[in-house]
Amino acid sequence: MDTEKIHQQELKEDKATRAQYAVALRESEERLRTLLNAMPDVVCFKDEEGRWLVANDAWIRLYQIQAIDYRGKRDSEIGELVSFYQASLASNETADAETWRRGTPSHEEQTIPCLDASPRVFDMLRVPLFHNDGRRKGLLVLGRDITRRKALEEEALRTRKLDSLAILAGGIAHDFNNILTAILGNISLAKIMVEPDGQVHDWLGRAEAASIKARELVDQLLAFARAGSPIKRPISLGALLRESASFILRGSNVRCIYDLPPDLWPVEVDEGQLGQVLHNIIRNADQAMPEGGIVEIEASNVEIDSGKQAFLPPGRYVQLAIRDQGVGIDRRHLEKIFDPYFSTKQKGCGLGLAISYSIVKNHQGTITVDSELGVGTTLTVTLPAAEEPLAPPLPALPEPRTGGGRILVMEDEAMVRQVASDMLATLGYRADFVEEGGEATKLFRTALLAGQPYAAVILDLTVAKGMGARQTIRLLRELDPRVKAIVATGYSSDPILALHRDHGFVGAITKPYNLEQLGALLADIAGPPVRRGE
Asked: Is pLDDT at 348 greater than 50 in this prediction?
């Protein structure tokens, strides 16, 4: 074969080889492009001057630049075309410059606005690339969406803040309820000793009303402390909304408009605790509009799918939005709005929304806030819909009346023992008092053996020393399965109140209680004394 033919053959083979390399290169580029576009993280390659070379689909979607030929442009140049993201893109150039200055990979968190959703937070990694001689080669930028992780971290931090105060709040509330029991009990005793139309009776009535207000504050502290599970039952949210708003806005220059569909699902909640949430939110709305205005209250049925909400499992929910036309809240304060003792009001104590957050969280729901200065604030509460139908209305307490017989009371607080003694005597009962369960068991056994059993036993749920109500009731039932025991507690959210029969009690009473409440309960439970052989 002559030289010319050999040369032609080599050219032919070289051309085929280059064609194969070109095909292989295109296939490799296609695989790389497919890989980059399949990544959920945003990826961008820039040249040594900061001009975009390659960006994956996630990056392009983030900045919504599909219609823009980004190649060869710097961030600031792209920002001029998509002005909504101009500030965010400008910050990219600043971060790029700092990475080049340091010459090493850098991490930073960057918040990027979104046209159709809340801002998203990204963990941005910038990796500078260099030639062998040290010259700049390019910049690799990777961003991972950590919005959900940040939200979970903030949720955990807020929970820790609440938990750090829970034990303190619970202890204070329990002790305060004992004090209020003595105050309310003595007031109710004094009221029956004075003329009902006299000035003294009016003064006592005001003191009683103030004490009841103090009891409401204690209930809020207990809800904040999460001393126990909410006592839930299915209720109509619409009825509670109208009742709460009407009460809070009575006499105010603020009025409510409602958007409550007739087919609104019932919610399974602790009505008292949810009432506190509504009270706090609507009161804040009222105070945000000192010149008057409108509070819009809207409720709707929603079904949440998997992955749609950061903190709620899939299922049926009722969503409530309470919207005011007030002064609004500065954006920089929004992340602290549910923190304990944080308030934007001069006279605010900063507990209302923290307590509301705790209550809603205990109901496996969420509460969020959105606000704009000069426009208003919207609080949105989402609660699980009830699986059971609406419960029948709770029966009204019977009118208190006097009775007779011996009552055994286990109470470790001296002031509560004193007022309970006076109230029981006024109601016609004879009472014996002990401080803990061991003493209660001895007196109960003695009375039983003597054929003069107690008509009823009132046991404090928790005592400082010795056995509390849970341990004591088991011993008393061993002695007499017919024992009529009432559990008394200062923890209004303790589940034993709703489930007292499961623990062997025939009744329950929450501190603080007054003469009428104690008389009504004993009239239903104690009855005439039961003697052996009857």
From this structure: no
Q: What is the pLDDT of residues 442-488, one digit of tens each?
A: 999 999 999 999 999 999 988 888 899 999 999 999 999 999 999 99
Other Cβ atoms within 10 Å of 18 Cβ, number: 10
Say whether pLDDT at 325 is over 70.
yes
pTM score, whole prediction: 0.48
Q: Whose structure tokens read 């299915």?
A: 234
Burial class (CB in 10 A: 0-12, 13-18, 19+), 198: exposed
pLDDT at site 34: 80
Q: For residue 359, which of 498, 228, 159, 224 has the smallest C-alpha distance?
A: 224
What is the amino acid identity at position 486?
A: I
Place 207 in a pLDDT band, splitting at 50, 70 and 90. confident
Check: CB of residue 218 under 8 Å from CB of residue 452: no
Residue 222: C-alpha distances to residues 225, 246, 349, 412, 518 (Å) = 5, 25, 16, 20, 22
Structure tokens of 221? 């502290």
Q: How far apart are CA 304 and CA 265, in angstroms?
A: 14
SS3 at position 227: coil
CA distance 34 to 36: 6
**Rounded mean pLDDT of 149-153?**
81
377, 385 contact by CB (below 8 A):
no
Which amino acid, residue 154?
E
**Is-contact 124 118, C-beta < 8 A?**
no
Positive or negative torsion for Cα 324, 326, 331, 332: negative
Query: Which helix (H) or strand (E) covers residue 185, if one does?
Result: helix 147-191
Displacement of CA 293 from its chain's centroid (Å): 28
User: How buried is residue 522: exposed, middle or buried, by Cβ count under 10 Å (0-12/13-18/19+)?
Assistant: buried
The Cα 269–Cα 285 span in angstroms is: 23
Q: Enter the tokens of residue 469.
A: 């109500």
Residue 73's alpha-carbon distances to 37, 81, 287, 318, in angstroms, are 20, 11, 51, 48
Q: What pLDDT is recorded for position 495?
A: 72
